């Protein structure tokens, strides 16, 4: 079993992240992160590499583009036992990302506010998060993907024992991802379907 080398962590729900990240660091795993998640880990003495440093490309468009980059998605989607993928990883100087811990913008909390506007709701639709999660879940043969902090102890325990998580655990975690992204998209579609395009100011004058 391969040894885990690199993790990308970007969280809205940061509960338990200090202990989890500290365990990863103690295991010699490099941690990549963005924004508030990176700050919280640094504030707790954890070494973090900014995703912008890892990709060599800055966050842009008011944070809308952070992780949507080949150096991130190549590292996630590359199949470790595919010789062609190995050649391309070296050719483009890409590095493997072995673990993804991501949860999504809280669309439900934002839209639960009766004063929530269409513009505010739209800004709370996560793009990079679901993209990373689906990529990692698709490549569960090689990638550990976490959306639920309650899975942190199992992941840490298996890494300590084997150097990586088991295939059985990775598959279970991947299933959780698709359940989450499915419900997330359903929730967004249902809320948007209730928007009154006749009275909403964003449609005025059309």
Structural write-up:
The protein has a 5-stranded parallel sheet with strand order 3-2-1-4-5, with helices on both faces. It has one domain: Methylglyoxal synthase-like domain (Rossmann fold). Helices cover 50% and strands 9% of the residues. It contains 10 helices and 5 strands.
Question: Which SSEs are present, and which pair or pack?
Answer:
Blueprint: E1 6-10, H1 17-26, E2 30-33, H2 35-43, E3 49-50, H3 51-55, H4 70-77, H5 83-91, E4 99-102, H6 107-112, H7 118-123, H8 128-138, E5 144-146, H9 152-162, H10 167-193
Parallel strand pairs: 1-2, 1-4, 2-3, 4-5
Main β-sheet description: 5 strands, parallel
CATH topology: Rossmann fold
| Rg value | 18 Å
How helix-rich are the residues, as a percent range?
40-55%
Strand arrangement in the largest pleated sheet: 3-2-1-4-5
Q: Please state the second-level CATH architecture.
A: 3-Layer(aba) Sandwich
Count, helices: 10
Distance between the termini: 58 Å
- Give the number of domains: 1
- Helix-strand topology string: EHEHEHHHEHHHEHH
Which structural category fits the helices and strands?
alpha/beta
| Count of DSSP strands | 5
CATH superfamily: Methylglyoxal synthase-like domain
Quick recap of the structure?
The protein has ten helices and five strands, in the order βαβαβαααβαααβαα. With 206 residues, it is an alpha/beta fold. The model has no long low-confidence stretch (mean pLDDT 86).
């Amino acid at each position: 079993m391969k040894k885990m080398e690199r993790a990308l962590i970007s969280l809205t729900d940061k509960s338990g992240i200090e202990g989890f990240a500290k365990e990863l660091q103690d295991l010699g795993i490099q941690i990549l992160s963005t924004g508030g998640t990176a700050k919280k880990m640094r504030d707790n003495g954890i070494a973090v590499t900014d995703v912008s440093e890892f990709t060599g490309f800055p966050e842009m468009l008011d944070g809308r583009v952070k992780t949507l980059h080949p150096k991130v998605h190549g590292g996630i989607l590359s199949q470790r036992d595919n010789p062609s993928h190995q050649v391309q990883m070296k050719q483009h100087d890409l590095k493997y990302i072995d673990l993804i811990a991501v949860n999504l913008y809280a669309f439900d909390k934002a839209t639960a506010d009766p004063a929530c506007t269409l513009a505010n709701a739209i800004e709370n639709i996560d793009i990079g998060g679901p993209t990373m999660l689906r990529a990692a879940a698709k490549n569960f043969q090689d990638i550990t993907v976490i959306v639920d902090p309650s899975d942190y102890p199992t992941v840490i325990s298996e890494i300590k024992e084997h150097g990586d998580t088991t295939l059985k655990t990775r598959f279970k975690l991947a299933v959780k991802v698709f359940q989450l992204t499915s419900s997330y998209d359903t929730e967004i579609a249902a809320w948007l379907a209730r928007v009154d395009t006749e009275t909403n100011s964003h449609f005025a004058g059309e």
